[in-house]
Amino acid sequence: MKEMKVRCTFFEEILGTAPADPEIYGTFIGSKAPDAPTKEEEVEALGVDAVIEKGMTVFPRLEDGTPFLYDYQLKGFFKNAAKALNYIGGKEKLTAYKTKIDNLIFVKERKIPLVMPEGSTVGNCQRPLRAETAQGPRVALANSESCPAGTVIEFTIMCLVDDLMGNVIKWLDYGKLNGIGQWHNSSKGRFEWQDITDK
Fold this sequence. Notes:
The protein is an alpha+beta fold. Helices cover 30% and strands 30% of the residues. The longest helix is centred in the middle third of the chain and has 18 residues, at 71-88. The two termini are 20 Å apart.
């Protein structure tokens, strides 16, 4: 098993992804898809835009109020990066990448604090969402908490199959192009990383 401790520094602001309304699943999603067996299927059935327009997305907080990311958000980033690199093919391609990431690659820490630059506070990012629907064009306002550029996270990656660490490194490199969090396709949440295993 290989381990690598990583520091990621965001050079674009990163946006929160959790619904601010803790009852959003029960009051909104549940009312729209009450017979769906899981919340994930409910969100998929409704579409992310429908969920976003119902409220602000935020960061979960530690007891002292520090915003953080969950380990599964980093694994979700790895899956997104693996999917993108699979389109390239060749050495970049990893078959059954979702299963391998789920079962062979782990982030040791459950909660990863977002350490903002000194003097910074959690901000706010509003943007319009435009969509073509069966009822015609639609515009909604999305609103998310944000941590500024210069925010840092540190976490430890464990690979049960040593050879997969090479893939992890490529996925982390992909973070310069497509980041973590809400609206990452617009450049939000992009980062540079370094191996700090021995530091």
